[in-house]
Amino acid sequence: MLPTMQSAKTSVVAQAIEKRDDGLFIYDMGEPVVGVVAFDVSLPAPGALSVHYGEVLPELRSSQAPETPWFRQPRDRWKGKAGVQTLTGDGRRAFRYFSVQWPDARAGHVERVSIVSKPHFVEERGYFRCSDPLLNKIWTISSRTTRLCMRAYYEDGVKRDGLLWLGDCRVQYLCNTGVFGDTELMKTSLRMVAASQNEDGSVPACAAKGGGHRHPEAGYTAADRIDYMPTIPRFPSQWLLQNYMWDYVSSVREYVLFSGDLDTGHELCDSLCRVLRWLAKHGNPLEARPGHDYFTDNGFQEDGHIFARPRALRAQGLAACRDAEQLADWLGRPELACWAVAAKNTLRPTLPSEGKRPCWHSVFLERLAGIGSRDEWIRASDNPNALRPRSAYMWYW
User: Fold this and answer.
1) I want to staple 201 with a disulfide (CB 3.0 to 4.6 A). Which of 207, 278, 301, 319 is the partner?
2) 116 — phi, psi (to 5°)?
3) Torsions phi, psi of 165, nearest 5?
4) SS in 3 state form for 188-223?
């Protein structure tokens, strides 16, 4: 069942910031927005009208917008009539800038833009300010991005797939705790993850089967859906990533930690036992295929090694087993602790050397897991040749 979401409507006067001779105008909303768009426009004559949306200006200035087999640049097209009228987009859009191609290069006028959004309403409780303007800007942008991604569940990318990805959800919830202190959305998201669980106990990388997507087959109306990503969510809803399963285990413990909600912890306990049982059978990091069964960063190779390191996966798994044991103690659920021990035993093999250059990421995850050498961590931190992750969300840790 889809969550019932309260709507919020915002109207703004967008500023035209660029005009081209071919009749293309680029407008600025002032800040990123998410929702169903309605344009009040005035046309001097009937004709075809097209609007493209972008997060950054280069997306609109380029004659060829970046597209892939699984992503098409969001756009709307209408047949406008002469005079003032309201044109409503066919689906949800996330953007700051938009371009309008007026008919036959004859400029019309955008009177006003209305956004009907369905956010998860939160109150900003955390605050940060310092003497460094760059840090202040980073906080503002990060806080706003977290809020924009809080919809009916934690969306990985409101501009792109709008899916509930396990690993991203974990990071988003932790970011939220420092700004908004909300726990209800994580409860909803974790229930969707549990509802997506396969019969064998494995958990897909995204919780689309549990309702964590906004694509047409989820039951969203034409005016409030994402319809520009072919093959999504069919593939992600079947993809099994071991590092995301470990994230799921740790996420439940972190949810209970910040919410104090033991009842939901009990509700999810059976799901955790099942995924730990699956990981106890399939979670040997030496048998997992980098880039297929897990990734701890982008697929990057150097000295014959892929950045998705077995050592990093093992460290994340050990940390998750520790989290499960602590959660079992809080809940008084010894069966959860037993499966955590079984999964931990799968992670015990001695791992081979990572090569000539140390991997900063692996060493750091081991420190977070409470294992590894402090001296090795210091050496890797100070070593300018150490391999470092490129994905931003891995830098988060």
Assistant:
1) 278
2) -100, 110
3) -90, 135
4) HHHHHHHHCCCCCCCCCCECHHHCCCCCHHHCCCHH
